[in-house]
Automatic annotation (TrEMBL):
Keywords: Disulfide bond. It comes from the Eukaryota. GO terms for molecular function: lysozyme activity. Pfam families: Lys. It comes from Capra hircus (Goat). This is Sperm acrosome membrane-associated protein 3.
């Protein structure tokens, strides 16, 4: 499959299992961090929330991840995939998408 198609299927699978395609999803973790947006990006490392002492590697507020315009969210997710953990950073990816045939996610799409 073409690389763009592979990236698209990965994002669709991840978005479905992370948030059910809900751009406004916020999940509060026991450690006080939050997972925000369609990809449920965590505030411990990737975005700025109430805690000023986080790395904020995506250089954005976690609330920005709730925007239905996904441009900044996708840019942040791409940064996460370049991290050594890569897609393994997402539990949803590890449990539902990794190693699976993802072609059904885009079957019939003109990509």
């Amino acid at each position: 499959a073409a690389p763009a198609l592979v990236r698209t299927t990965v994002r669709i699978c991840l978005a479905y299992f992370a948030s059910g395609f809900n751009t406004g999803a916020v999940d509060h973790e026991a450690d006080g961090s939050t997972n925000s947006g369609i990809f449920q990006i965590n505030s411990r490392k990737w975005c700025k929330n109430l805690n000023p002492n986080v790395p904020n590697l995506c250089q954005m507020y976690c609330s920005d991840l709730l925007n239905p315009n996904l441009k900044d969210t996708v840019i942040c997710a791409m940064k996460i995939t370049q991290d050594p953990q890569g897609l393994g950073s997402w539990e949803a990816w590890r449990h539902h998408c990794q190693g699976k045939d993802l072609s059904d996610w885009v079957d019939g799409c003109e990509l």
